[in-house]
Amino acid sequence: MVISVTHAASQPASTPVIPVILSGGSGSRLWPVSRSSFPKQFWPLVSRRTMVQETALRSQGPGFAQPIIVCNNEHRFVMAEQLKEVGITAPRILLEPVGRNSAPAIAAAALLAAETDPDAVLWVMAADAAIQKPENVGPALDLAVKVARAGRIVTFGMTPTKAETGYGYIEKGAPLAGYDGAWNVARFVEKPDAANAARMLESGQFLWNSGMFVFTARTMLQEMEKYEPAIVSAVRQAVQDRRSDIDFERLDAAAFASSPDISIDYAVAERTDLMTVIPGDFGWSDVGSWDALWELGPKDDHGNVTIGDVAVFNTSNSYVRTDGVLTAVTGVEDLLVVVNDDAVLVTHRDHAQDVKAIVSRLKKDGRKEATTHSRCYRPWGFYETLIEGNRFQVKRIVVEPGEKLSLQKHYHRAEHWVVVEGTAQVTRNEEVILVRENESVYLPLGAVHRLENPGRIPLTLIEVQSGPYLGEDDIVRLEDVYSRN
Length: 485
Known about the structure:
GTP-binding, alpha/beta, Jelly Rolls
């Protein structure tokens, strides 16, 4: 559902609210579906749309400008494509060269907005949170915009429904004079233990910290200058020295990397005197664990949430998901079972937060499954590894109509391409070859080559690599329409 800001209640139509979507997390607690190469915001976990699509659509329509998206370089093409799929064709996608947490990302968005209007109102959201009662957001946002225009920094505090230990909390202070429904913030509280969470719930004075903020660019930058001037200095230079790249804006790498690595909570929210909280019942969840997805999902008569080709017997209160093979579960309760093509997770729901520790252990052990999927998305389509062996590897490559790979060569491997669907145009040294279904072409080691799809349907081929080294870094790009190194 699209949320519309009421102009008469908040601001003139000529000054729309600028949505800012932060997409820097890896969502490791939702492994093996969410990995740093393709994190949870790009997956359809709570609806048929992906989480970033749902987030972006909340702020489309009257009263809103085109969004500013802050994401990393690796995800830029996936982000642009997913936004395009839901009709968002002109976002400003700001690329972080390195991760520096939420405060520098927000500073970059504020500086970018301030170039046009220092008093622009920004609505900052994480790309990977769920809101199941969007009809309640509009009135709260109208109030937040009015408070922000008065020089305050606003956050939305979610009315707690249980003694949750996985969220931070906000304690309400005195009501904000002149703005019914808004409160001064007394303090922020880190994720509590069960006993403290219960006490805060019982008091009625505490709200869940949603991580959403509303403010003017001027106010936020003034407060950052006051408390973390090094952030503003570094990020201002990164914004000034940015360069345009196709549909993206690249922050200067050296300048941005020199910024302190700190969250907006620590940098500003917990220190400023301008902090305001507006309580809300948005049906909000940060979708921070598989147990949260069990809570959000539609359940059968035994409390089970099942997704994909799943069969459950004598099972209760469990979450079972498969993205491929038939998964059968019997004789268990309160279990989380998640099946990918290259990894399987099984854990008790009470230990859902421990998944992050599993990922850390896998990274320490050098397991690529910790960070990358067997299917890897590229601006031209995707490839997925089918078989890996000693000195050979088999992949399926899908190239979208009109797209093409870089002009490249390899020092350590030869390749054999077999077209199984569509038509390929292959450059091999000085030759240009048209390869049709059930035809193949051989690319010897060192050959300069390129693959293109000149047709109107996706091109699918099987690639057989052979050689002593088959890593993705054995690609020497000579020419690339996507400006990759």
